[in-house]
Amino acid sequence: MLSVDSHLWLPFTQMQSFDAGRRTFVRGAGTTLTDARGHRVFDATSSIWTIVHGHAHPRIVEAISRQAAELDHATTLGATNPAAEALADRLCGISGMDYAFFGGDGASAIEAALKMSLQYWQNVGQPQRKRFVRLTDAYHGDTTGAMSLSDIPVFKQRFADVLFESVPYDRFRERLGDDVAGIVVEPLVQAAAGMRLVPLEVYAGLRERDALLIVDEIATGFGRTGTMFAYQQLGLEPDLLCVGKGLSGGVLALSATLARRPVYEAFLGEPGESLHFFHGHSFAGNPIACAAGSASLDCFEEERTLDRVAGLARHTAIGLERFRSHPLVREVRAAGLMIGIELRSEAIPARGFASAAWRVAEGLYESGHFTRPIGDVVQLVPPLSSRPDEIDAFFEALTRELERCA
Ligand SMILES: Cc1ncc(COP(=O)(O)O)c(C=O)c1O
Description:
Aspartate Aminotransferase, domain 2, alpha/beta, binds pyridoxal-5'-phosphate, 7-stranded mixed β-sheet, Aspartate Aminotransferase, domain 1, 2 domains, 4-stranded mixed β-sheet
């Protein structure tokens, strides 16, 4: 357990006030995390949009342990392995893409997509295409390239001096110049912007374009919005598709940049031509993570997960109704099982917490629901394996908490 003299430094966490006594997780099973006090909480954000079929799903646990005993790791720099091959095949099968380039966290899939786009245009003789276009309120991760594509000040303003400029895609009916390498979009919902729903007309403008279309499914992929990938609801044809988080079932760091054949083919040539992709990470295509990914896709088939999500999303939409007219709620946003409930923070005293939403989240934790606010937004992005009564219990706890905090 983390103590005052712990050596652990946590992401996006003020360590001075962090209380390890209340947030040290020692066990995960199904939709529940257990902390060191023995307090059990519903993992209402799926551990920030990662866990898909619940914690410690037996099929995924078994695949990981079998693969670890057989081939734990082997570099994929100029080598391959059956687990990575198998997952690449299956990913291309379900996404309609043609090739999978593996990375680790989501941001590494975005970095690969950026560099792949730049080198693609060099390889096909249009090296002037260097600029990237992004949506309003975009978020694509915390590495330097990914931050450059993001639009939310809190995530990038401290580092603005070393970022490159990206172009907002607000005026989506305007023609883009021939210096644009790629247009990067989150499909349907922008999770880090507080589950912001993107106006659909934004995507309509993307069908006619010269630049590469890069779709970031890192948060939305693997069933969260009702379809395997959110872009499938929008009629988009990505040139590059970034996946992460839920790719391994959400249990190991694994991401991928999926490419269409014409992009891949631009990197083919004789050894001396140096056309191959100049990018790679040590753990790309790690067999254990890939085995977990294939086991997760097995679960989707065997447990008919997408059918289940459709039912659960309908149930959730009904439960959400009560918040739409709630005096302490500004707005309710939902896309499948990605839900944001924006509070009227001015009407709720923060009482020593960072914000009203943090105060509400703290109360929820004590009543057995672990969520993390985004600004004034209370989020619910449950594991796809959640039961309807777990969603109901979350809504009841939130209703009680709003009454208590008012
Ligand atoms: C849409 C989107 N893209 C990229 C990322 C970055 O993923 P990671 O945190 O795994 O680097 C996130 C993370 O929340 C995300 O929501």
